Every structure is written in structure tokens, then in C-alpha cells.
Predict the structure.
Amino acid sequence: MQISNVVVTVAPFSSGTWLDESRVSTPMSRYPEFAERRSSWRGPGSDLVWVLVEADGGEVFGVGQSRGGAVTAALIEHHFRDLLLGRDPLELETRVEQLRRAALPYAAGGVLAMALSACELALWDLRARAAGVPLVTELGGNVHPLEHYLTCPAPELLDGIDAGLVATSATVKVPMQYGPADGPAGLRANLARLDDTRERVPDAVPLSVDCFMSWDLDYATAFLREAGDHSLGWIEEPLLPDDLAGYAELRRRQPVPVAGGEHLFGLTEAERFLDADCVDVVQVDVTWCGGIGVARAVAALAAERGVTFAPHGAAMHAWAVHLLVSPGVEGLTEILVGLGGPAAVPSVGAGPGVGIDPRAVGLR
């Protein structure tokens, strides 16, 4: 079997949703002109990248996805494509390692990891389709129920979803709107957002907060001190991902579990993060971190260290859902509320691969 074509297309991840237009504390929130809307600064990195790898004239194919928009797409189209054409797609690990090594002289971090993810996920999908089985079967697993947690940006959105979904959540996560630049008033507003959410969430379900890399150690410590009566499930991404010392110190200072890792790119970064005792919940994104191989290795490392594995945005990524029901992987799936469509625990289909029709995403 030989790869005969590689197709890449870029599409908006979202448009007009809370991810684009609402006030959420971000790494750019310290600059007033970029504080109110993420769409004011996100750029091409917010766009989806879809990849179709075809073999033997298109008789067999696989679909992959990542982010990074035109930047990631350029790496795949103008470099990775030629390295894949004419080669055996079933030699998946070799294909991915060749791509990684070929880009080392000029690419590192997010762009490389995202491009690798898209191609690796497509190759996994192709391998499962070639075998005529769902991806979870190719990974050696069996379907079983998934545990989940909810991410909900506005408390009122919880009014429109199934109460049972909320009641069975490991936690309900609330993106924080304000950070250090907003002073005491912003901190009080963050606490008020928690209170508004609690009115809609059973007491038995803990609330968590997402800070999107925008806080610092002192602000996070102060917030957690003020939120001491809220029984938080975890505090997520309070610091920049390379602030290993800060993460470890935050865990030492207070008892609330710390989550993070969605912006870790590659196994080396993730291993360093875990080795530094940065988190209680690790959240690598299967479409960003380098793909299923990296995510599965992170899940194994997390299990060894007693850290919860909770892939970022897992309910939106079919590959992550299949991974979460594969052998040796225990974890939580994240369900985002308010991005269109009903909120529900995802399931694995019976068809081959991950079940994505390339025509539905503009690849054919």
C-alpha cells in the first residue's frame, strides 16, 4: 500500500461563539485593547486544519485534524506532503518520526506538534479503515462508558441541557473572565461567576475554574484563598505552561488540585511537566500534542504518577474518544457547552476508523 495523495484544507474553528466574542481571561488580557474579545487577537491559530491521506488511488483513506490554520497547513502542504507520497501508510510510526525529524531544523513547539498531530491522526484513521474496524479496535480496546466533565462559559447555558448530564459530571468548569490586570474588582467578579454557576449545579458536583494561562502565582493563590468555601474541583492553566516552578509552588501552597497541559507540545514537554510535579490533572490535546502516540504515552505517565488524564476538548475529537476507551487509558472526556449541538457524552461508532466523512469537512 502506498500513499497516493495528501489533501489539506483550513476552516474556521468557530465564529460568533463565546470562544470568539465573550470576555474570557487570556494571555492577552493584560492589554486593554485585546481584553474583551478573543477574536481581536486570535489570528490563524484558531482555525481548524483538516488532512486527508489517501492510499492506492483513494480506495483507502484517513482523516486527521489540528489547529494553527494557514501556518500549520503550509508546513503540511509544502513539506510533509512530499515526504508522505509514495510511502507505506501502515508504517505509521516511521512516517511520523520522519516528519518530525525533517522539520527539526526550522520548526518546534506548537506548529510542528499540530502538523504532526493532523497527519498522525489521519494515518491512524487510515490504518483502522484499511482493517475495516473502528479505531478503538485497532488500538486494541473495547467500548465502555466514559466519565465526563462539563465546560460552561455562562451559567445560564446550563439551564438548557440535560440535568442528568450535569449531575453525573466529575466537575463543571467555569472559564474565568478576569485576571491580575483587573484588580480586586475582577477577582470579586470571578467569584460571583462561581456563585451564579453553583445555583445551577448540584452541591455534590464540584466547580472548577479555567484561567487560560493568564494568571500569576500570587493572583492564583489569592483567588484560591478567597474561594476556599467553594469546594473547587481544580484550577486549570493558571500559569504559562513553561512556568514549571510556579505550577509546583502553587500545588505546595494550597490544597486545590491543579490542572493543565493542553498547551504542551510533544512528549518531552509533557514528561518534563509531569516530572516537575506541576499538576494533578494533565490535559494534553490529542490534536495538538503530536497525536495518539504522544497522548497515549502521556496517559501512561499520568497513571504511573497518580495524575488524572483528561484530554482537552475530548468530546469534540473522535480520535480522543477512541483513545479514552482503549487499553491502559483511564480518563475524563471534556464536553463543551454552548458550541452548537446538544451536549452529550460522546460514543464510539461501529463503522471503520473514526467515522468522519471527508466530504462533510471539505476534503472531497
Q: What stands out?
A: The chain has twelve helices and eleven strands. The domain at 147-348 is CATH 3.20.20.120 (TIM Barrel). The mean pLDDT is 95. The two ends are 21 Å apart (CA to CA).
